[in-house]
Amino acid sequence: LHAQCLQCLQSPRMDLCHVPATREKGWYLALMAPNVKGPNYAWLDPSRLYCHPQGLQDCVADLLQPFQGDAIDMVAGIDAMGFILGAAAAATLQKGFLAIRKAGHLCVQTVAQPYTDYSGREKVMEVRTDAISPGLRILLVDQWVETGGTMRAAIELVERLGGPPLCVPTGVAAICMENSEGGKWIRERYKCSHCVPPRLQPRFDQHQ
Length: 208
Prior knowledge:
Blueprint: H1 3-10, E1 33-34, E2 44-45, H2 47-50, H3 53-64, E3 74-78, H4 82-93, E4 96-102, E5 110-116, E6 122-128, E7 138-141, E8 144-145, H5 149-162, E9 171-173, E10 176-177, H6 181-189, E11 192-193, H7 201-205
Parallel strand pairs: 3-4, 3-7, 7-9, 8-10, 9-11
Antiparallel strand pairs: 1-2, 4-6, 5-6
Helix pairs in contact: 3-4
């Protein structure tokens, strides 16, 4: 990562004005904050990245770059942090945004899908039934793909609502897609986009 950006990790306050002279793919990853609260929390907090105007803009541009020229009808974001990147991507593409929610928050008819999240907790997500039709081309967005359980459940929801014929996701996008068993399952089956340069992928996989 750019040497100047590494200073952000050590600073108690964010510099929302600084932009490196050379903006290589992933330069904004250094804006993310490490966990200081212990093992009950994720190892890294990407939300600090979203506070930086250029960082957020470049992150979304990098996520969408592999899908240039692909037909996308709608962007779906996963509760909760996937809402930020998903809505930003939808606005950039000038497409609608679909929220895939944790169970119990939608007051309309929904379809549900159980899953196990990255921490091993059993959960249920749901989506409204009136937004997805057969053949709709959907880009699925989340903040992070660690074990892949959450994203796989979202994929299953989209495909269930869209078929037959199946509504196959146009692609999957996240800041980081770890090389876990679940992450590999997704990569092998769907077009994927993430922001971590290959040289840094092993460190992200090992949560360093």
